[in-house]
Amino acid sequence: MPRLSTILATVKSYYPQVERVVDATSRMAIRVGRADFSSGKRADPSGCALARACQHTTGVDGALITRSVAYIIDGGTAIRYRIRTHDRAKIRMFDKRGDFAPGDYVLRPPVGYWEKLGANKGQDWGTPASGKGKPYKGPKAWSQGIRKLKMKPKAKA
């Protein structure tokens, strides 16, 4: 997991007014309509169908949707949510094909200590008991052509 300062800098590159990132404490229901996915941009964390639906459903300032995490921008705070596994597949399909199933979606707060901001995953799991060797990083995922949240390029003046 990236460090909190890296996450904040990345979110600020999309929404400069953000001053802090916090974990959500309750679920958020989002309704995605046909207008959201028809006007959404593929592989764009701030302009995809789910991000557009978050903005008009809840009236927030913006949203950044990654493959597994959503940042909902409300004033100077970015609220961090986890995206459910089966909804991640729908995001992948939107990035690949441009279609997104309309309906109700739920963003959930981080639950376990390993999902919370500041968790050091490499030390909490996957490290061999002897301390030798490399930590297990999980299976290789098929993610070519799928969105990645990285620093937004600065506009040329």
C-alpha end-to-end distance = 33 Å
Helix content: 25-40%
Helix tally equals 5
Taking the sheet with the most strands, its summary is:
6 strands, mixed
Count of strand segments: 6
How much of the sequence is in beta strands?
Answer: 15-25%
SSE order, as H and E? HEEHHEEEHEH
Provide a descriptive summary of the structure in words.
By secondary structure, the chain is α+β, with helices and mostly antiparallel strands. It has 5 helices and 6 strands; from the N terminus they run H-E-E-H-H-E-E-E-H-E-H. Strands 1, 2, 3, 4, 5 and 6 form a 6-stranded mixed sheet that branches. The model has no long low-confidence stretch (mean pLDDT 80).
Which tags fit this structure?
157 residues; 28% helix; 20% strand; alpha+beta
How would you summarize the topology of this molecule?
Elements: H1 4-14, E1 20-23, E2 28-32, H2 34-39, H3 49-58, E3 62-65, E4 69-74, E5 77-83, H4 85-97, E6 103-108, H5 121-124
Summarize the structure.
The protein is of the alpha+beta class. It is built from five helices and six strands, in the order αββααβββαβα.
